[in-house]
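Late entry, evening session. Most of the bench is empty. Finally got around to the prediction I had been postponing all week. Sequence below, unchanged from the version circulated by S.P.
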Amino acid sequence: MDSETSIRASSPTRTIKLVLEYDGTAYAGWQIQPHAQTVQGVLKRVVETVMNHPATIYGASRTDAGVHARFQVAAFRTPSLRPVSVIMKGLNAMLPSDIRIRRAEEAPARFHPRADAISKTYRYALFTGRKIPVFQRLYVAPVRGKINLEEMEKAAEYFVGTHDFSSFRASHCSARTTIREISESRFNKLQNDHLEYIISGNRFLHNMVRIIVGTLIWIGKGKMKVEELPALFEKKDRRYAGPTAPAKGLFLENIRFKED
C-alpha cells in the first residue's frame, strides 16, 4: 500500500468540482449510454484512471448528441489528498483534444451540479449568408432564404416568464412537469451574416431550446405569426411548433449556482 492509499483509507471524502468545455460533434451527448461514446463516459474513464478508484460523475446539464458546451459543470467524490491543481493537470493530460477542464476546485461536500444549479444559459449560433465558412460548419446552423429579424425579436420576448412549455419539448420527453421559468430570450446580430439567440432559464426540457429556435425561424420566414404564439403555448402539443433546429448550433454557455 503506497503512502497516499494508506492516508486515503482514513480520510474524509472530498468533492471535486470541474468546469469543462467540449466540442460535442463526436459524442452521443453528455449522459452515459451503452455502446455509445459520451462526454460523461469519457470523463468517467479518465477520472478513474487518474484517481485510481471508481468514480461517479455528476453533471449539471445533459446536453444532447452534437451539442457543445463552453461551461459545463461536473463533480466527483474522492478520498485522495492530491492538490486540485495536480488533479486538473492529470485529467487534461489524458482527455481527448475535444474535451478540456477549464477550472477545478474543491466544493462543499454536498455539492451536486444538477441539484444546485439555479440558472442555465444557452446560445444558438445561426448563419444567414449563402455559404457557411468551412471552419465554422460544425458550430453554426444555416438559415436558408430571407428572414424578418424584427419579427423574430418580437417573438423571442414571448418566451420570457413562467410558461408551460409542452409544445416545445421532444415527443418522448418524460419530464414530470413542463412548467419552466425563462429570464432571458433575445437575439444578437453579429458581423458577417452571423446571428445568435440567447436564452436563460431555471430548467429546460428535452430539445426545448432547439424547438424554440426552429419556431422563431418559422416566424422569421413568415410560416407563423408572432400573434400565434400564445395559442401555441395553450395547445400544449409539439406538433404545432416549428422544427427542431440542428444540434450543432447549440452551446451551453453558463450555469449559475446557489452559492454564486
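Two things to note before I forget:
DSSP finds six helices and ten strands in the chain.
Residues 1-10 have pLDDT under 50 and may be disordered.
Will write this up properly tomorrow.
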